[in-house]
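QUALITY CONTROL LOG
STEP: pairwise intake check
CHECKER ROLE: data steward
CRITERIA: each record must contain a sequence immediately followed by its structure tokens, with no blank fields

ENTRY 1 OF 2
RESULT FIELD BELOW
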Amino acid sequence: MPADRRIQGFCCNYTASVSGEALRDAGLLPTGAVLERLPCTGRLEVPAILAAFEAGAEAVFVAGCRLDQCHNKTGSERAARRVKEAKVLLSELGISPDRLEMFFVGRGENEPVVAAAREMAARAARLGPVLPPAAGPEASEPQQAAAGKATAKKPAAKKAAAKKPAARKATTKKAAPKKAASGKAGAKKAAGKAKAKESTK
């Protein structure tokens, strides 16, 4: 497993009995894994999950209490619902929802938290970078799809540019009445000259 995979974990204060730093110093967490302890995972909002990806995380996991052991009763339930919502948004952004997962851990259990971090590091290694320099053959399928959508938008811009000559035609049509108006004025002058000649005869 590559050592440069950045994994962001959010852990309930009642699950892991020690801090993420202690687990990392003990060599239990994958290199690049960061564990943030929260008073309750139910306080974790969807924007915070997406912000972790924006900050460079290649995988994110939430480790909350088991549903029947939640200190705040419905905290883990709320966290699971928000993780589900964030997965939908990731799919819409062209990012694999497998990069995000919810885990339920018993109180004071460090091993499941470490296992969750390792699982997400393995997923990140399998899926590759979230945003590669170019979506080529080696890019993941969601990334290629996102690149395809971006490319598909370019012809639309050409269509918008193609509409500009139409605007010029419209301008030409507007200018046409002016020519007609000047033609009428010329006709009146010609008629006046003709009348003047007749009067001199």
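ENTRY 2 OF 2
RESULT FIELD BELOW
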Amino acid sequence: MYQRLILSIAALSAMLLAPVAPAQERAAGQLSVLLRGYWSCAVPGIASGDAREVRPALDFETIRGSRYRVGDDIGIYLRLGDRVTMTSGPFRGRNFRVTGDDSIREIEEGSLTPVRCLRRPAN
């Protein structure tokens, strides 16, 4: 009886002390940053043409910290969990949902838009 109780306590302790996976932390609204690199944005194409219609005017580069660059202009973004908000700079007010380490989707008025941005690693 005591042996079963000790095993149960040991199992419970191991579960409670196990580290939380990064994806679970981000999903819970943890402060984080996007991976550094160049984010190329596009919308889905049509079946008879290109798979993606590139939108260079929406592209940006994530740099050190929570900053991004568009041309010579620099702004700041906030990432909480799977949400990214451009809080200053040329894209102030743009919102995204993180869909993977190298992909985000733009959000407008609470709904996903067709705009998807994919990351190329920084040089």
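INTAKE CHECK: passed for both entries
DESCRIPTIVE NOTE, ENTRY 2: The beta strands are 31-32, 37-44, 52-54, 60-63, 67-70, 73-80, 83-86, 95-100, 103-108, 111-121.
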